[in-house]
Amino acid sequence: MAVLSRTVASSSLLLTLFVLFSSFSEAKDILVGGKTGAWKIPSSQSDSLNHWAESTRFRVGDSLVWNYDGAKDSVLQVTKEDYVSCNTTNPIAQYKDGNTKVELHKPGPFYFISGVQGSCEKGQKLIVVVLTPRHRYDISPAPSPAELDGPAVAPTSSASSLKGGLVVALGLLAWGLLF
Ligand SMILES: *[C@@H]1O[C@H](CO)[C@@H](O)[C@H](O)[C@H]1NC(C)=O
C-alpha cells in the first residue's frame, strides 16, 4: 500500500516535471510589439519596439509575427550596417503581405526595418536577440540522451546547474519507480 502510494506520488511528480519541460521547449509565435498594429513609427521612446523587445525573451524556433497594412508598409530583414544606416536598398529578405511570419532559426541578433522611406529614421525598426541555448537564464528544453548519460558537459552557469539538478531529480524518481 505504501509502495503503491509512493509510486502514484512519484508518477504525478514526473508528469508535473514533464509538463514543465514541455512548456519550456515549446516554440512560440510572438506578435511584434505584443499587439496588432504595433509596426509603426513609435510615438515615444517607451513606445518603441526595441523597448518592447528588451523585455521579451526570444528562443531559437520561435517565430515573429507582424500585423500591418500590406498596402502601406513592409518588413525588411537587413544587416546590422543597413539597420544602423536605415538603408532599405538591399535587404536580406522583404515582406509586404501584411501578416508576416519570420522564424528565428538561429541564435544571435536579427535586424528589421520598415521598407517605407523615412520610417526607419523615425524609429520604426527592431532588433531581436535570440539567446544561445547554452546561455539562457531559464530551464532548457528536455535534455538530450547524451546529456543524461553523465556530467560530460560541465555546468557553466546557475541555469545549467539548475537543469543538472532537475535531471538528477528525474533520474532518482525514475529509479524510485523501477525499484
Ligand atoms: C545602401 O546599401 C547599398 C548596398 O547594399 C549601397 O550601394 C548604398 O550606397 C547604400 N546607401 C547608403 C545611403 O548608404
From TrEMBL:
Domain of life: Eukaryota
Sorted UniProt keywords: Cell membrane, Disulfide bond, Glycoprotein, GPI-anchor, Lipoprotein, Membrane, Signal
Cellular localization per UniProt: Cell membrane
Region forming the signal peptide: 1-27
CDD domains per record: OsENODL1_like
Record-given protein name: Phytocyanin domain-containing protein
Family membership: Belongs to the early nodulin-like (ENODL) family.
Lineage: Eukaryota, Viridiplantae, Streptophyta, Embryophyta, Tracheophyta
